[in-house]
Amino acid sequence: MIIVLKPDTTREQMDHIIEKLTGLGLKAHVSAGTERTVIGAIGDERILRTIPLEAFPGVEKVLPILKPFKLASRDFKQENSVIRIGGAEIGGRKLVVMAGPCAVESREQLLEIAGEVKGAGAAFIRGGAFKPRTSPYSFQGLEEEGLKYLAEARQKTGLPVVTEVMDPRDIELIVKYADVLQIGARNMQNFRLLKEVGTYRKPVLLKRGISATIKEWLMSAEYIMSEGNHDVILCERGIRTYETETRNTLDLSAVPVLKQLTHLPVIVDPSHAVGKWELVPPMARAAVAAGADGLLIEVHSNPEEALCDGEQSLKPKMFRQLMSEMRVIAQAVGRDL
Ligand code: PEP
Ligand code: MN
After folding, report:
1. Which pLDDT tens digit goes with each residue over 224-233?
2. Which of 126, 182, 193 to mutate to test ligand 1, by most ligand atoms within 8 A of the CB atom?
């Protein structure tokens, strides 16, 4: 249920409603918009039907949330969510680009790439220290050593750090270094992991599962949000279809669909979608045109030697070129980059 408050509702009146809801075993999530404050009452809604919420002072109206995802839905919050991290904002007028190598391989490798992507205008450095690899014999990441290099890259460039968390047991360590926690495609329905990151006050970048529907993806966002962490960024990274020319099929229609269904920011990762560096720029440009709030792009100074995903990584020069092309498209659709 959504409880819409009157514009002049006092703090005491709101607290009284929240107390009533929590007393009934429901969770109360407050969304303070510029126009209106609403309370999302989440839990077994049958209980709610037994109390006359409209009779409470300060309540304007009570509405059901018809979608299975509640906190993530536009019904709960009409304005776009803008997530603030350091000096960056995700979901505002300005697009954000998260760039870096698939895996942190060494201090030198990471610092070099971080300097390059910063120079090209990226807003975040992204690199994996814990890598979900298809083969157990592939490079699995530098773990804490890699996190330390990411923190050093942040200190040198000022770029906040995005890095993946694969296991609830690693979160405590990763939150010491990261600014945004990435949940990879393979873990999109790892509900224990989702719930756990939901208890932290760190934004979460939630990638779409390899064969997840948009609804399933939003239900995963709901898992995180229902634990209290509302700072979720959705990342379309391609889905598995019958097509084999590309690594995955980039579902760009997910961008406008999500813009209708949810207030959460949406970014696009063309690198994992197409799997080939030549195809990354056209799909990145298309993502900007489709209304994405940002991009996640893999960049490597020496893709031939990369320990992970070299075939889809852009060299810094090409990344710089792409950034300037995307800037023009952003302007054309009323955004900045
Ligand atoms: C990655 O971002 O490097 C990655 C492994 O992506 P995904 O989870 O989308 O496959
Ligand atoms: Mn990768």
Report:
1. 999 999 999 9
2. 182
